[in-house]
Design brief:
about 280 residues; alpha/beta; Rossmann fold; eight-stranded mixed β-sheet; 11 helices; about 20% strand; globular
Length: about 280
């Protein structure tokens, strides 16, 4: 059983490699990890190219949704993007928040931070900044963000409860998040669940949908809503690396599902007493 730090190091190493890959390579696999599928379509991410603010150089094809499309960003907002990669969601958020707003991207992979900063600099985006750090302990002052977005990142973090708690800390009272993530319904086959490469590929690090939603409720958020949900289908030529032919058939015919969900939730205007929060 790998420790949290070992899992984080797996992700850091893999996403350092991904930062140097082209988009087509990343899109042909699970969040950029694993061997390339021979089936020519994107497994998880969606088409950003029609959204205002889109920059092709910053799109590594790593997401599993379009959280910025649902994030209700207003002019002048402070927006934080968790796991900002090469800056794709940050630049779209910048278009929405305008020159009077600010966008902060957080990523713990130095190669991604370097790439994002370069992308921002060549475009003269002086109200977008990128900070290196863990999203379960963000280098951001409490009550800073109007909106937090994230795309296919929380599933990569072993301690998801810590991330949700820090999202609550960083949001202003009345602020909200819109996060796209990968969740499960039913138990993954052992071969997928234990494999380190599939952890870095967003699948084996995902948790049960009902557990995911309960974590958000338990940390004091209101108006918790699923804005979008879609099934994720992993092609056979990727599954064969982890499962036998019989196991693949059983997996496909069973009750297990892998889904991308985009979830909205709001921090209350008045602080609530949450168990373990020291206020009750």
């Amino acid at each position: 059983m790998q420790t949290e730090e070992q899992l984080k190091e797996i992700v850091r190493k893999k996403y350092s490699e991904i930062a140097l890959q082209d988009k087509e390579t990343n899109m042909s696999s699970c969040c950029g990890a694993g061997g390339c599928s021979t089936e020519v379509y994107n497994i998880m991410s969606e088409d950003y190219s029609t959204l205002n603010g889109y920059n092709a150089d910053a799109d590594l094809g790593l997401g599993c949704g379009l959280p910025t499309q649902y994030a209700q960003i207003k002019k002048g907002d402070v927006v934080v993007d968790l796991g900002s990669g090469a800056g794709n969601d940050c630049f779209i958020a910048r278009h929405e928040t305008g020159e009077t707003g600010k966008v902060i991207g957080i990523d713990f992979t130095p190669a991604m931070i370097d790439k994002a900063r370069s992308n921002a600099e060549v475009r003269g985006f002086n109200n977008v900044e990128f900070r290196q750090g863990d999203i379960e302990s963000m280098p951001i002052t409490a009550n800073t963000a109007d909106v937090i977005v994230s795309n296919c990142v929380l599933n990569l973090v072993p301690n998801k409860d810590a991330v949700i708690k820090d999202i609550y800390r960083v949001l202003k009272p009345g602020g909200h998040f819109s996060i796209s993530d990968v969740v499960l319904v039913g138990a993954l086959p052992e071969g997928l669940r234990k494999d380190a490469e599939m952890y870095a590929g967003c699948v084996s690090g995902a948790i049960q949908k009902e557990v995911y939603m309960e974590l958000i409720h338990a940390n004091g958020f209101e108006q918790v809503t699923i804005q979008k949900e879609k099934a994720i289908i992993i092609p056979d030529d990727i599954l064969i690396n982890y499962l036998t032919t019989d196991q693949i058939a059983a997996f496909k015919n069973g009750a297990t599902g892998i889904f991308s969900v985009t979830v909205f939730a709001k921090k209350p205007m008045a602080e609530k007493c949450v168990p373990g929060g020291g206020c009750c």
